[in-house]
Structure formats: C-alpha cells, structure tokens
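Notebook entry, structure prediction.
Reason for the run: the old model in the group folder had no record of what sequence produced it. Starting over properly, with the input documented here first.
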Amino acid sequence: YKKLLPRLFHNNVLIVFTNYRTDPRTVFMRQRQGLKEDKSINNARDEISKGLNYRPAYFQMDSLPFDSEESSYHEEVRLSILDYIGREMKDVDLRVETLLVAKTPAVKDMDRKTVDRSKGKIKGYKEMVNEKSSKKGAILEEYQQEKTEKDNVSQEAENLETKLKELDSDMLVTG
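New structure, fully documented this time:
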C-alpha cells in the first residue's frame, strides 16, 4: 500500500494489535508461555518501521471483548485511537478523491503493452502513407506518360485528318 498510496504513509501509520486480551487469566497464560508483549510488539514495530522513516505509534486491544470490563477498555482504546488520529494527523487530507495513486507494476505493464501496440500501429500507418505516396508518384508518372502518348496520338490523328481532307478534295492534281 505504501507504493500505491505513498502520501498516506508520510507519518500517518499507526498499529493496532488485536487479540490482546487484558484479563488476568490471559495475561497469566502469556506469561506462562513466555510470551512477552513488549518483545513481540517491538519486533512488529521494527518490521513495519523498515518500510517507513519513523517508528509508528501502536495500540493494543481485544477485537472481541467478552465482558463489560473488556468492552469498556475496548471502547477506551478505540477512542484513544481516534484522539490520536485527530491530534497527530489533523493536517493530512485523507479524502480518497484527492489522493494521487502510484501505478502498480501490473498497471505499468498494461501501459507498456498499450504503448507498444500504439507504436506498432503508428509504424504501420507511416508505412502505409509512404507506400501510398510512392504509389502516387508512380501513378502521376504513369499519368504523365499516358497523357503524352494521348497527345501524340491526337496530334497524329489531326495530321492524318488534314492529309485525308487534302486527298478527299475535288482539286485537280497537276503533275
């Protein structure tokens, strides 16, 4: 998501660790199993921080509270998250319509293929224009030759008509 929506990740990440029950029995079981919250939380924060240039804030809560005490704690955590967002991220415009989204590798690949297809079409069109232009030149040359030949034939026909008129006259020939 950081590559897709880079602006959202500029000091805007927070981590919510769910399934962190706070009842005495669960706390006791974690201690018994040797699970230290601080260690697992720090490991997760370190891992997430690798892609960021800061260490994000974190919150712990149980996403499915069982009793009213846990529900109350759950609500407090949610309110503190909202308070944190309102306080720390107040200058951030998180409206989707204003976001500039980076192109994913798949979109870049689709764009590259479209560009390649378009370049191929352009090349084909240019070849067609060049072919038509060269045909046009050949056709004009052929037209000029045909016109010259037609003019020569017309001239010869006129000459023959003139001779024919001379031969087809009533004038006497001397000789």
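Summary: The chain has a mean pLDDT of 79.
The old model has been moved to the deprecated folder.
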